[in-house]
Amino acid sequence: MRLYWTVLTGGFRRHATYRVATAAGVFTNTVFGFILAFTYMALWDERPRLGGYELAEALAFVWLGQALLAASSLMGGGFEDELIERIKSGDIAVDLYRPADLQLWWFSANLGRAAFQLLGRGVVPMAVGALAFEMALPENPLTWPAFLLSVLLGVVVSFAVWYLVALSVFWVLDGAGVVQVAWLSGVFFSGMLLPLTVFPGALGEVARMLPWASMLQVPADVFLEKRTGWGLVGAYGFQAGWAVVLLAAGRALQAAATRRVVVQGG
Amino acid sequence: MAVEGLRAYGLIAVMWMRSTMTYRFSFAMTLLSNLTVNFFDFVVIMMMFGHVRGLGGFAFGEVAFLYGTTSTAFGLADLVMGQVSRVGRRVREGTFDTFLVRPVPVFAQVAADRFALRRLGRLMQGLLVLVWSLVVLESVEWTVLKAVMVPLMVVTGALIFGSVMTAGAAFQFWAQDGAEVANSFTYGGNTLLQYPPSIFAGELVRGVVYVVPLAFVNWVPALYVLGREAPAGLPSWASFASPLVAAVCVALAGLAWRVGVRSYRSTGS
């Protein structure tokens, strides 16, 4: 376990060194937060309580999306680029030779990265949003830890999805297409562009059941105290369920890929 | 110099297209997903209009027109020179040197570096929405001038976006990890311009009119076409100022790029 803890803290520290990139990211998240917040205000002005949210809650949704964007890799940019590069170049053979589990290794590194991104790129946009707009905040202080647990589960699901995406490169060679499809799903089905409760009819029902819902929609609902008591348990269950299924799929794919590895040269 | 640059750009772009075509399946997928990625972005606006009749006093056709004009302009700029945003990475890794030693204009090399034909998807999607919006727009009384302004808007808009991309790239000679700052002006600007100015705070609108003149990509000329008032108290003649604004932007971006390249110091070691 100590090994993976070292990998985790290494992931945190490594991303903490990208100071300019973090500042640039905060700037971008804040700019997008403003643009989205104004479009939501126009929308909720016409239709108060759209999707079951008050305007203040919808605004919180906007800024939560910006705050979680990097931590939950809603648009990628997590560990997957590097893993894909290693698979393409064949360096993955070295990783497989190490006395560490491949999935756990990347899981730990990504958890460290996500923890840093939550602090580095999450806190400031949230604070700016809360200062510039009348945004709903949790009334019960216990909601904050409940929200953080939900974010953590969302990060795990996000990792599991991107791990599958990265491993697919063993078969499709150039991962750009798969990555883009995953990126599209992350943006659209997480609720970052529009809360999933605003999606119409069957599309909305399906979207709320997909794994991406656990990356933003569910944590946001926990934050807005829409899921309390048994509802909260249900929310965690939904997230954990997807995490287990997708992590197991990642394991299976990893086993299949390992059998496929052909080391070049040597 | 310019001819030489264009020729070099063409050669490098063709080279990268050939290389992409090696993985045909993946290319088809990226092109398709590129189209859908951007289409989903429009789906969001359609879903909004599933709940409301107007946004900021603008009807669906009008918002679609704003969306179509900015997305096409942005798609064009992104296809031709979106790759300039990679320059920070090159500077960081010290591989920018290879551009400097080749007897080919540096900017042409940077703009064509890893030319990605899949970006055609974004341009195609923008054009589709633009054409569709022209069909559903009811309130516009078309004149020759208005009809000419639509394609002109796309070209001048692409020049303005391209200038912002270049300026953003030049900025990366100092802030090597700063690509995202440029994104907030390019991608952020594109998102902003998809919606009517009436929904945004006055300072924000004035900012994109007078500071970073993104409003001239489509807001200013498009509002004229739609028969509405110019934003942020602009005089009426400003509706036709986009080409002039684009020219100034190109000149300033060119200057920023030169200063950036001059200040480049290779990595030590």
Automatic annotation (TrEMBL), chain A:
<feature type="transmembrane region" description="Helical">
    <location>
        <begin position="178"/>
        <end position="199"/>
    </location>
</feature>
<dbReference type="InterPro" id="IPR010390">
    <property type="entry name" value="ABC-2_transporter-like"/>
</dbReference>
<keyword id="KW-1133">Transmembrane helix</keyword>
<keyword id="KW-0472">Membrane</keyword>
<feature type="transmembrane region" description="Helical">
    <location>
        <begin position="20"/>
        <end position="43"/>
    </location>
</feature>
<feature type="transmembrane region" description="Helical">
    <location>
        <begin position="145"/>
        <end position="172"/>
    </location>
</feature>
<feature type="transmembrane region" description="Helical">
    <location>
        <begin position="114"/>
        <end position="133"/>
    </location>
</feature>
<dbReference type="Pfam" id="PF06182">
    <property type="entry name" value="ABC2_membrane_6"/>
</dbReference>
<protein>
    <submittedName>
        <fullName>ABC transporter permease</fullName>
    </submittedName>
</protein>
<keyword id="KW-0812">Transmembrane</keyword>
<feature type="transmembrane region" description="Helical">
    <location>
        <begin position="55"/>
        <end position="75"/>
    </location>
</feature>
UniProtKB/TrEMBL annotation, chain B:
<feature type="transmembrane region" description="Helical">
    <location>
        <begin position="237"/>
        <end position="257"/>
    </location>
</feature>
<dbReference type="Pfam" id="PF06182">
    <property type="entry name" value="ABC2_membrane_6"/>
</dbReference>
<keyword id="KW-1133">Transmembrane helix</keyword>
<protein>
    <submittedName>
        <fullName>Transporter</fullName>
    </submittedName>
</protein>
<feature type="transmembrane region" description="Helical">
    <location>
        <begin position="55"/>
        <end position="80"/>
    </location>
</feature>
<feature type="transmembrane region" description="Helical">
    <location>
        <begin position="123"/>
        <end position="140"/>
    </location>
</feature>
<keyword id="KW-0472">Membrane</keyword>
<feature type="transmembrane region" description="Helical">
    <location>
        <begin position="25"/>
        <end position="49"/>
    </location>
</feature>
<keyword id="KW-0812">Transmembrane</keyword>
<dbReference type="InterPro" id="IPR010390">
    <property type="entry name" value="ABC-2_transporter-like"/>
</dbReference>
<feature type="transmembrane region" description="Helical">
    <location>
        <begin position="152"/>
        <end position="175"/>
    </location>
</feature>
<feature type="transmembrane region" description="Helical">
    <location>
        <begin position="204"/>
        <end position="225"/>
    </location>
</feature>
